[in-house]
Amino acid sequence: MKRNERGYPLFTLGCAVLMLFGSAAAQIFLPPAPPKQPSEYGKVVLDNYASKPGSPGAVVFDHWLHRSKFTCRLCHVDIGFAMLAKATGITAESNGQGFHCGACHDGKRLVKGKPVFAACSSSPADAQCNRCHSVGKYAARKYEYNTFTAKFPKAMMYGIDWQAAEAKGMIKPIDVMEGVTFRKAQIQGREDFGITAGVPWVHPVYFSHDKHSIWNGCELCHPEIFPTAKKSDVQYTMYSNVHGRHCGACHLRVAFPLNSCQQCHPRAPMWAQQ
Amino acid sequence: MTVWRTFKWIRVATLLVVAISMGSVCAVGQGAKKSTVDQDGQQVAQRSTSAHEWQKEFDQVCSTTQEAMSFSENELAKFVQRCDALLPQIEKLDETRKKVYLGRLRMCRGLYAYVLESKRNEKK
Question: What is the CATH number of domain A184-272?
Answer without folding.
Answer: 3.90.10.10
